[in-house]
DNA sequence: TTCTTGTCACCTAGGTGTTAATAT
DNA sequence: ATATTAACACCTAGGTGACAAGAA
């Protein structure tokens, strides 16, 4: 069995509609997909991998007219909607890649003795990527999947391929691939919870995420109190 | 067969008498021990590891009276000798540890397709170290050794242990473990060639090590021309 | 006197969202 | 109008020798 790490954080993002940035060079996910694993054969070899499947067959877009222009900066917009419209049918599927955890293969004992983190996994929108990154269509929704493959020592192991792997899906890790954040609340939650974005925090630099616990005050409400939202009327 | 990478740099250090810093927390080696490997079975599994054996049974010390005091800084000295005296018999041997390359085990094809770098290996003088670092005695000389172990798939593989590994020794990688550099020329060569020490360079910030090639002008002579050595007479 | 330790400024290396410009 | 890109300031994380103080 498999337990998703940082589930509380995933839930918080999921409630807002998680977005993950895709770039040409490849961008890590945040939150990082991390799991605790139980019940492996400690002595057997396993490969751990992830892939991403479309949640639906749709392409999304922002609702018209909800963009706010930034005063004195013609051409710029800063506040995107949190809702999505269906823009039509999905773009052609991207090359279906998988990401093997770099420690693969390893013994069950090794995988189970600590949290397994997919922090080397990167998402790209570059169809011609040759860095082995996961290729996704921007403005499409995806479901990450986690697969555990038992390395069968038998000579005719191919015959048993079907029974030698198990797939785990956590719906709270679904997200929309984007090239720039669409929902400002997602942006702010990323800034509040990702250590690498600390430079953009304007609230108390205090003990986040050190003191954050599941069940504590919801992040966004805490955030909203200390933030000056872009409130000046659009002067379109 | 195995080929030592950056041999020219190792040779340059070796001519001066290589020193490696040991600290309580653990210090990486510089140059880093890196090799190219040839002739493995691409499909077989191998473990790669290193250990360190004493070059002799001696403890070393600096010759007396060669220390230069730094003007206006009583108690400080800045220029150590490049020669060593035998201080006596070696201290009790440290716990004999080995460092497995973190990618072990892996297929021969994997090991051979790129340079294998032991940049995670750290040296410590802490006899009680529990980080798995290599424990060495300061002021003693060591010879790094590189071992390739074939992972024998046979059930009674223990019987063949003797024939399933091969050891490679490069004498130019010998060094003296120290807690602070003793030979100023070693310090300067480290500063000149280690990217992480760039902050201490006072010569042209130009294209080192980018343009450095084996056979080019020896480093130290190039360095000496642009450096102000500590030349004021000792006022002991 | 000689050697060791801990702190520091200054680097490398690379992960963030912002921003302005550009593409479609 | 909407979406993407590239450069950037500002972080995390950690590898350097210098330096001052301490230990033996």
Automatic annotation (TrEMBL), chains A, B:
- The answer to whether keyword Nucleus applies is yes
GO annotations of cellular component type = chromatin; nucleus
The Gene Ontology terms for molecular function here are:
DNA-binding transcription factor activity, RNA polymerase II-specific; RNA polymerase II cis-regulatory region sequence-specific DNA binding
Full-protein residues shown: 18 to 253 of 406
Q: Which positions, given as ranges, span the membrane? A: none
Q: Where in the cell is it found?
A: Nucleus
* Record-given protein name: TBX1 factor
**Major localization listed first in the record, in broad terms:** nucleus
Keywords, alphabetical:
Developmental protein, DNA-binding, Nucleus, Transcription, Transcription regulation
What is the gene name?
Tbx1_1
Q: Where is the composition biased (Polar residues)?
A: 228-236
Q: Which organism is it from?
A: Syrrhaptes paradoxus (Pallas's sandgrouse)
Superkingdom to which the source organism belongs: Eukaryota
- GO:BP terms for this protein? anatomical structure morphogenesis; cell fate specification; positive regulation of DNA-templated transcription
Domain T-box, by residue range, is 4-202
């Amino acid at each position: 069995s498999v337990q998703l790490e940082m589930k509380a954080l995933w839930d918080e993002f999921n409630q807002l509609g998680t977005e993950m940035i895709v770039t040409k060079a490849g961008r890590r996910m945040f939150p990082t997909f991390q799991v605790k694993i139980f019940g492996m054969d400690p002595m057997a070899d396993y490969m751990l991998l992830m892939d991403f499947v479309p949640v639906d067959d749709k392409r999304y877009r922002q609702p018209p007219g909800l963009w706010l222009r930034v005063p004195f900066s013609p051409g710029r917009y800063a506040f995107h909607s949190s809702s999505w419209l269906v823009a039509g049918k999905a773009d052609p599927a991207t090359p279906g890649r998988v990401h093997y955890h770099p420690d693969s293969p390893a013994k069950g004992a090794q995988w189970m003795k600590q949290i397994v983190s997919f922090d080397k996994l990167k998402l790209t929108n570059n169809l011609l990527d040759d860095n082995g990154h996961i290729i996704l269509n921007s403005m499409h929704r995806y479901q990450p999947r986690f697969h555990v493959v038992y390395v069968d020592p038998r000579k005719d192991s191919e015959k048993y391929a079907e029974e030698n792997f198990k797939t785990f899906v956590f719906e709270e890790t679904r997200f929309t691939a984007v090239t720039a954040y669409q929902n400002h609340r997602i942006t702010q939650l990323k800034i509040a919870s990702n250590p690498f974005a600390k430079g953009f925090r304007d609230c108390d630099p205090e003990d986040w995420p050190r003191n954050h616990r599941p069940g504590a005050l919801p992040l966004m409400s805490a955030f909203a109190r200390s933030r000056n939202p872009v409130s000046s009327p659009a002067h379109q």
